[in-house]
Every structure is written in structure tokens, then in C-alpha cells.
Amino acid sequence: MNFLVTTITLAFLGLTSAHAQSRAFQKFTPYSEVGIGGGTASYFGELAPIHRPFRSLGTLPRWNTSISFTRHVTPHFALRTSFTWVRLIGDDFTFTETNPNQFPIQFLRNLHFRNDIKEVAISGLYQFRREGNQPNHRPSVTPYIMAGIAIVGHNPKARIPLYESDSPLGNWLDLRPLGTEGQGLGGYAKPYSLVTLAIPAGVGVRWRLTPNLNLSAEVGFRYTLTDYLDDVGGLYPDSDAITKNLSILFSDRRYEYLVARTGQDRLEALQNLPDVTPDVHRGTSGYDMYMLTQIKLHYLLPVAIKCPVDRR
């Protein structure tokens, strides 16, 4: 969290100084670039806690792909708009299977999800090395930081129990309409939104490949304003409150002996778990996050040449 605050602060300090820089470097020629890229995506939440970052990063990383438009407005500052498609997955069984007795409550909970996220972001980039006055004069290597704001659309899904499905591994089903924590029922919270805000922040390095091409590598965190990327965030509802069969199945999966996402048998591990008091908490409070690593290729758009004014 300290890293996130520091990165945002530095990036927006660059934003506030943009006007002063543009006055100081009147000869700088603004230019634009378009980029495509992709990389890995890792989820942090109830099923992959942030306080165990290395284990969470190594559990079920998935992918992201993006397109972007960047406008370099001063020798140090740029503005970027981007669209990113992200796949996230979390699974209590996969996170705990190497040592169920170390995480007995999480292993017993046995929840999982998949979420395809669509992210539209506007970010400011502060480049630590000064750009040349012309795009061709940019440095060969440029480290930078970025921060901004994003709109995120998401839709968590989970697999139907194998014994309830015709599919060998179970079909994927939208979780929000099921109200797995009683959402929408009397005395419970409203259904969570499938659109939320996020704060992207990160660091990167840009390399000049040719006069018209850049390559960049970036690591960025997304701190979202929802606790339900994974459909997990509150208490188990009262057993009498939920009446839909599928809602009951997806709400409490503690006693399934098959792992719904993979089809593995976990009965022996369940029998060997230490005695644990059943937890009324299905999840914990706190917003979900995800981390993206990206390699991007950028093409510099031609700069319009201004003809001198004939003052004769």
C-alpha cells in the first residue's frame, strides 16, 4: 500500500509540473504513439491473500492484453489512455493443496472463481529522463512511473458441481445473480455492482528500438473499489434464507469432496484436516486487487511539420 501511495504521489507531482515544464521547454515537439501488448495477470483477495504475496503470485497467474494511445506533452510527462482485457482466477484448493493443514479454514471453504475484466484507464506517466526536442532525439532507455484512474467491468463465474452438470468439468455460471451471500434478500446487502473504479499505479522501462518504434516493460497494480471480483466478501447466509438450489450450492462448498474447477478428489485431505470451528465468515472485508506485467510495442505517429509563416 505504501508503494501505491508513493507512486501515485510522484506521478501526480509530475502532472502539476507539466505546465511549468512546457513553458521551460518551448522547443519541445509533442508527439503521440499507439501501442499493443500483453503479459501476466495475478489476483489478490480472499482466495489469494496479499499478506502472502509470493505464494499468491505463484498461484494461477493468467493473462492480459491491451491497446493504448499515449501523448507526450512535455519532455518528462505523458498522458495515456488504454483498454486492457484481463483474466483472473482464484481457487482455495489450488492455493492450499500443498499443505491443507497450514490453511485448514481456507482449504475447507473450497471456493473458486474466474473473472474476465475489461479495464479502461487514463494514466499520467512521469519519465525520469528528459525527452529530446524532437521524437527522434528521445533517450535510448527511459524509466518511468505511472498512476491514474480506471473503470473496470467484471463478472465473476464459478463451475457447477460435477454431479450437477453434464460437462466433464462442470459449466461456468455467473455468480452475481445467485446472491451467494444473500444479496438482494430481506435483511441482506444489495447485489454488488459489476462496474467499479480502480486505481492503477506502477513502474516501467521504455527502450528505443528504431526512430519509429519503442518497446516497454511495465509492472502495475490495480487497487479496485470492490470486494467482489471473486464473489467473496462477507458472511455465509442463513440456510433458510436462500431457496434456489444453485444459490445454495454455490454459496457453501465446504463439504464437496471433488474440486469443482479441476475435478480432483479432496476427500482424503478433508478427512485429515485438524478439527476447526466452522467459520461464519465466507470472506473478509477489504478491496480486491490485481497485478499486471506487460510487454508493449509502441509505434510513433508521424509529427505534422509546421511551415513557417510568410510575413512578407
UniProtKB/TrEMBL annotation:
Keywords from the named record: Signal
Keyword Signal attributed: yes
Signal peptide (residue range): 1-20
DUF6089 domain: residues covered: 32-152, 195-241
The organism's place on the tree of life at top rank: Bacteria
InterPro entries: DUF6089, OMP/PagP_B-barrel
Protein name: DUF6089 domain-containing protein
